[in-house]
Amino acid sequence: MHRSALALAGLLAAALLLLPLAAAAADPRPGEITEYQGQKLSPYDRHYDNSIKGAQKIDRQAYRLEVGGLVDKPLSLSYPEILALASQTRVENMPCVEGWDERLLFQGVAVADLLALAGARPQGSTVIFRAADGYSSALPLAYVQKAQVLLAYKVNGLELGIRRGFPLQVVAPHKLGYKWVKWVTAVELTDQPHLGYWEKKGYSDQADTPR
Ligand SMILES: Nc1nc2c(c(=O)[nH]1)N[C@H]1C(S)=C(S)[C@@H](COP(=O)(O)O)O[C@H]1N2
Ligand SMILES: [Mo]
Asked: What atom in ligand 1 is closest to the CA of residue 155?
């Protein structure tokens, strides 16, 4: 009894000592943008990783983004080819169902532009995003166009590292985090509904968030 009370007090003291360390924001990386047009950004570096199979290592030279499905001219784009396309830069908030948010500055290519480039056929209604870890998620084409969904290659001004989803992460404004596919390898236009990894397990396919 006495000993366990002492041990408990020791644990509490240790926790109190470590608390300020855990709460302190990570130092920004060299060149990291921390504020944009008056908005404070979440840090690029954070400690958790909730992805289904951990970070995926994608070879920069061998990488191709496939854009296919209901298109007339399927694309197979290298990383430099993607960087050479017209891009957009925007702050967006990503809310996870686990209860946390990240407000980050993204730069990337509009998925609607890629589909137009590939000659999207009019019967396409759903856009599927597939990733190197076998993960997938889908979004309605109308939403992809209206919300200007991006395939981002930069976060807070920095190239996406392997934990951030190198080379590309989906940026899906006002949708929950599980729509924000990382390590994207393929974009597929279809006229069929598609339930992604978490959607198949019962999470909402709409995944709308008021935030
Ligand atoms: N390929 C892939 N993408 C994924 C996931 C995953 O497991 N695999 N997890 C999703 C979930 S549930 C969330 S909340 C976000 C987390 O993104 P972040 O690491 O950029 O914060 O990634 C999403 N994209
Ligand atoms: Mo999530």
From this structure: 20
CA of 72 to the centre of ligand 2 (A): 34
Q: Which domain holds residue 174?
A: 33-201
Instruction: Evaluate: CB of 147 within 6 angstroms of ligand 1.
Output: no
Does any domain span residue 79? yes
With respect to residue 208, please indicate whether it lies within any of the assigned structural domains: no
Number of structural domains the chain divides into: 1
| pLDDT tens over the chain, length 211 residues | 355 555 555 555 544 444 444 445 678 999 999 999 999 999 999 888 899 999 999 999 999 999 999 999 999 999 999 999 999 999 999 998 888 899 999 999 999 999 999 999 999 999 999 999 999 999 999 999 999 999 999 999 999 999 999 999 999 999 999 999 999 999 999 999 999 999 999 999 999 997 5
CATH number at residue 191: 3.90.420.10
Q: What distance in angstroms lies between residue 98's CA and the mean position of ligand 2's atoms? A: 6
Atom number of ligand 1 nearest to Cα 96: 14
Ligand 1 near 205 CB (within 6 A): no
181 lies in a domain?
yes
SS (H, E, C) 67-135: EEECECCCEEECHHHHHCCCCEEEEEEEECCCCCEEEEEEEEEEHHHHHHHCCECCCCCEEEEEECCCC
The answer to whether residue 55 is domain-embedded is: yes
